[in-house]
Amino acid sequence: MSKATNTTYSVCTICDIGCQLRTEVADGKVKRVIAHDNPMLAPNVCYKGIAAADIHNHADRLKVPLKRVGKRGEDKWEEISYEQAMDEISERLGKVVAEHGPEAFAVSTSGWNTQSTHSTDRRFMNLLGSPNWISGVALCAGNTAAVNKLTYGWFPMPDWGSTNCIVLFGHNPRKHSWTPIFNAINAARSRGAKVIVLDPRVSDQAETADLHLRLRTGTDAAMCLGWLKVIFDEELYDKEFVASWCTGFEELRQRVDEYPLDRVEEITGVDRELIAEAARMYANANGAVIPWTPITDQQISSTSAIRLHSILRAVTGNLDVVGGETLGGFNPNYIPESEIGMHGALSDEQKAKQLGFDDHPVFTYRVAEKLKQETEKVWGYPYADLVMGCQMANPTNVFRAMATSDPYPIKAFFALGNNALMSYPNQHQVLKGMMNQDLIVAHEIFMTPTAMLADYVLPGDVFTERNHIADSWSWTTRLTLSQKAVEPPPEASSTYQFWHDLAHRMGFSEHFPWETLEDILDYRLSRSGRTFAEFANTTIMEAPTPAFKKYQQRGFATPSGKVELYSSILEDLGFDPLPYHREGPAISEAYPYRVFTGVREDAFFQTGQRNIKALRDRSPSPKLFLHPEDAARENVQDQDWVRLETAHGAVTAKILVQNSMKSGHIRVPHGWWYPELRSSEHLAGAFISSDAVLCSDEEEFLDYEQGVPHFKGFPGRIVKIATPLNLSEQTLNG
């Protein structure tokens, strides 16, 4: 007889938004996931959330530890016990450390898939002596957090409930993508808020925007400099705030004068009058926001573009004010991951070995140490792990070291909830680096191309199988409850359990005293006087009323104590202290199109969910988006197979002709591989349609300050082909 249906509240970790959901369970299985009654979510939940039960109950889900028995990447395994796996992993990691030093150990993870880590991965690595922790947030939000810290010491969050103007740089929240942001924008519109969209595409948001600026991809920094030119020349800036709380205004004004609107029009392809109109709308809004967007994160001028967003907020008086963007700080009743990470345990000598420390230092320990005193003075802790994007190594440098042993060898690599092979530029070098390892460990729920390269694959839990408190990646003071709905498979482990058990085997047991997830949650709540059980019984979300203009009491967490329009830290590091526009590689007759990659599809998050039928049916094969004029020029049409080629690689996909595209541009989907080809194609077709093949990690393609690869506007061309070899139409169309 079927048991009654039980409902729990969960924070979804299928993507990075962290939506609240209701999970319905019967007979010990997740039956349905539905929208939460939170007003920002109640109308809808995204496709991925709807399909959560399919993910959790999937026949291909990993349930037992596996040990490689064939050659690396051959996908041959034997089942072993969890205890045996952990014993062997600890022994082999110990050998790597003994032979090459602790810096030879690198870890790649992602916060949304490894929600239960609680920064104990950083704790373990810092105790061991390795500075080489990386994450996908180096390309998405984390790097933005690091740059915002340079400018005013924190990463701001929009005050969605009161804003009067929303500026979206390439950002396209929809009903089934970025659902809370989509709902917040609609609510703001209903109050009369204006929306400005800057995007080469006619996106969903662009169609309904008050202003749409179709800028050339990769020119965000130039556009922002043009806005500042209008704002300064017409004196639309907040003179009192700038005079009292900003440094470097005159120097910035001189730099801005180098970008008159005719020059900005030439760079961006947008009419100067439209540029000026948009700048005025933003500056005069009396409460405006420029929400974070992954588009700005991934350009050759990424650091400057992000800094310019920060600067626009500040000089227009939209920083830490009602309707603008708030500087949250730590929740005083919750121990942050910044404390749990034990960054002080890592010696200065080892911090200086962090890959990227010398050449691309902005989100490394090199900058974190320069801000340590100011961060502690203003926020109460010397380190702020904002969206995990600070104090980390540079991924490009890590994979180079794995492949070439330059400047020293990386010989052990752990990937937890992170399909690293598919996620970073120069995919062939990433593969070379992984093939060069003495030890690879993957902690996953499905067999990914990265996991296929591992020596050990450990099955992980999913968000309905663990208790958790989400703290918005330390972005805000909000705490959100996530309740365990069902038990995980017996041999599956949480990421916390993995690090706890590894630490106990390698001599760090005294620093991992919490035996269970609930124990560490109790510890993190201890300042509030509550246990996790008490928290779970009394609240779904705690969202303390934000305090505004906190800088009036404490200043900003920067060397000057003010907003640094002219960055003293960048100057000290030998970089340009003022923002600038940098041209990317030029198109040519041989490569006549501007390619922008990293574009997500509603059905998937990053490289995941290609094996979920309900989601794959919505997008059976990878699509290249092309304007009709370009399609005619290339003699291609919808459903034609093409090869997109750059100077660094090629991918195969189908054409989708769209009027919404900007002529001369090609939009490339992100993260494509083929789980259904696991038995017939090496690494499940990891190199057939992956955008990571197209992108270079050479220095000319990297942002100077952060080493962020250029995904927005590199040259490419298309070649019409027949159905790809080894791929049938039936396979690729589900």
Q: Which descriptor suits the 3D outline?
A: globular
Tally of distinct domains: 4
Give Rg in angstroms. Answer: 24 Å
Q: In terms of quaternary structure, what is this?
A: single chain
Number of helices: 29
Residues in β-strands, percent: 15-25%
Distance between the termini: 36 Å
Structural class: alpha/beta
Largest sheet: 7 strands, mixed
Q: Per CATH, what is the topology of the largest domain?
A: Rossmann fold
User: What is the average of the pLDDT values?
Assistant: 92
What proportion of the residues is helical, as a percent range?
A: 25-40%
**Which architecture of the largest domain per CATH?**
3-Layer(aba) Sandwich
Model regions low in confidence, pLDDT < 50 over at least 5 residues: 729-734
| Number of E-type strands | 27
The CATH class of the largest domain, by name, is Alpha Beta
Q: Give the strand order, joined by hyphens, for the main sheet.
A: 5-4-17-16-15-6-7
